[in-house]
Every structure is written in C-alpha cells, then in structure tokens.
Amino acid sequence: FNYGNWETMRFLLSNARWWMDEYKFDGYRFDGVTSMMYHHHGLQYAFTGNYEEYFGMNTDVDAVVYLMLANNLLHDVFPNCVTVGEDVSGMPAFCRPWTEGGVGFDYRLQMAIADKWIEVLKKCNDYEWNMGNIVHTLTNRRYAEKCVGYAESHDQALVGDKTIAFRLMDQEMYDGMSTLKPASPVIERGIAMHKVIRAVTMALGGEAWLTFMGNEFGHPEWIDFPREGNNWSHWYCRRQWSLAEQDHLRYHHLGGFDRALMELDDRFQFLASPHQWVTHIDEKEQVLVAERGPLVWVFNFSPHKTYEGYRVAAREGGKWRVALDSDAYHFGGKGRVSWDADHFTVPGKFHDRDQSMMVMAPSRSVVAYYRTEDFPAQAAAQDREREARDRAWREAQEKANKDKHTDSQFDPRKGGKAVPKRK
C-alpha cells in the first residue's frame, strides 16, 4: 500500500472501523507489522537495538503514521478495543499511546520466545539448557510496553512444523499416553517439561498469555487444511478435544495444569503486576527462582536432581504456601511436594532480599508460593481442605478399628469397603 495516499488511508481506516462495527470484534492482531514500518520490510535485517535502525531513512514514516491513526481511531471509537502488533524489530514506543509519540498498540507479540524453545529442544540435551539465555529471551522487552508471551502458536501447530509436545514425545504420544500403564522415560520427561516450559513462559514472558487450540493439552497431531497436496483431505483439519476429557489419558493431566495456570492468574493477578525480578539463576543446578507479582516461582530444569531444603529468597517475611505445583499427582507428577506445608521465612540477606525460606524443588518441576498474610482467603480455603482430609482419615481409622473384631478388615485404600482377611 501507498500509506501516504489519502484514498488509501481512508480505505484502510474505514475498514478497521467497519469490521468492529459489523462483527463486534474485541480488537485486532496486526500481522507482519515489521514489514510495514521499514522500507527493507525487515528482510535479511538483524536489528541490534541501535536507535538509528528505527528513526532513520529506512523507516516508512507514512506506514507508521497510518498505524498511529488506526490505533487512535479504534481506541477512540471503541474504548474497550484491544490491538496487538506482530513486530520483531523492537520499535521503541510501539506500545505507548500516540499522545506520547508512540504507535499506540496495547500489546506486542513476543515472537522470539517460541523460536528460543524450538532452538533449545532441537539443539540441546537436557543438561545443556542455558538458564541465563532462556531468562534473557523471556524478559527481553521494553520497559512499560506490554507484551504477549507464548511458548507456541498456530505457526507450530500447522503441517510442516512441530508443537512442543511433539518435539518432546514424538511418536510415543500415539501409544504411550494411557495412565493404565507406567509412563516411559520419554513420556515422563515430555509431560514434565511441557508443564515447566509453559509455566516459565507465562510467568516471565509478558503481561498477557497466548496459547493455541489444543496445544495446551499437547494435541498429538498437526493442522492441515484441505489442499491439492493432501488430496483435499479434512482428516487433519480438526482438534480432538475429547482427548483432554478422558481421565485415563495423560492429555487430561496437561489440560488440567493449563487450567490451573489460568486459575492461578485469576487468584493472584501476576500477569498484570509490573513486579518481575529474577533472584537466582544457577547453571550447574539448573534452577531458576523468580518473583512475579505476589508469587515466588521455583523452576528446576534438572533431569534427575531433586533439592530438598532448597533455600530461596523472599520479598517479605511470614508464612508461605504452595499456590501451584506441577509435580502434583493430578497433573501427572510424582507428588513430591507437600501442597499444604507451611514455609516460614528467616531474616538475613540472601540474593538481595532480607528474607529467605527452605523449599522442595523436585526435578523437572515448577512450584509457585504465595504469602498467607497477603491472601488470607486462599490460606483459609487450604486450611479447610486440610481439615476435611484429616477428618476423613480419622473417620477411616475409627471405622477400621471397629471392624477389627469381624472376619473382615477395613481398608480405606479400597474405597472404604470391607476386605476379607487373608488366612
């Protein structure tokens, strides 16, 4: 387009409004914005962050002005409209209002993150993952400009590419996802790392979170629309949602963990929080500790090492509890973390914080902690769950003691049924 042409500008802006008016969209994702903003279209060009790359003769000023006008129009006419720009150049003020001289987008897509995960999974074994490099990619964004973080999108789900789940588990996904038999080492690793990758990306990768239909529970197949190359087949033009609904399949565990991540943000609002601080990176131990919002996140990428009594920094003193545990049984884990244990801080400088606490960091896991004093309702709910569990256990024990004089013995592991004594 010739963005300096008056009629071209009117055509594009009127279209932007018409689609919002007619179809009641929530907003727009502007695709390939980098190719619009520069005369070289971003092709074969490596941006280094030098401001001359953004504010020089290579910049298509007319295109940038059009984007400013489009964002101004949409937000003025539709105050709740959300605009997201797909920009890989890192244009300064891309996500600042036009009144500040910005382009006016609400969010920028953090496209480098998905590429980083592909690179790591393709080129590195589990012992070679560079924690510092991963953290740099996740947190490399401009201050006060909101970004959408994602581990993968439609690009990885389409035919010709592979999703994270498929890169982790490959062909074993087709016959190794049943919970009725023990998980193979490949499946066990894939389930664990799929959760860790998505959690660390959501925790550190931006101010919003993006997934793609089916990727959240590790959908085993790609998407391929009918075309001449596949003889116009509709076979892969689908999503098998039922996989995540079957209790006997491990897709159910991945879907449940993704749901828990969404509920975690609902409760603690960590994505909307400006506070993000990485307190500890250990390349040898493959451990990463970070603060996001009110939560302390402990990531252990190590394939085999579980750290008991691992000391982590805390922003404030008090009592901390588990808010999310990827190693929980109902997420397909090994249940190595006590979800209702209390972790008390001790004073003293540690990793630039005045408080620290001891936690369990299982291999290939993520555990998020919250301070009970900040969220008394959440703590009270956990107390009630603990009391209910203890009450059920006591009742089971009492019933077992009463049944001792009969020819049957009570076994609470059998659903509370009487089991004949063995001779």
Automatic annotation (TrEMBL):
GO terms for cellular component: cytoplasm. Residues 378-423 are annotated as: Disordered. InterPro entries: A-amylase/branching_C, GH, Glyco_hydro_b. Residues 277-371 form the Alpha-amylase/branching enzyme C-terminal all beta domain. It comes from the Eukaryota. Residues 382-414 have a biased composition (Basic and acidic residues). Pfam families: Alpha-amylase_C. One of its GO terms (biological process) is carbohydrate metabolic process. This is Alpha-amylase/branching enzyme C-terminal all beta domain-containing protein. GO terms for molecular function: 1,4-alpha-glucan branching enzyme activity; cation binding.
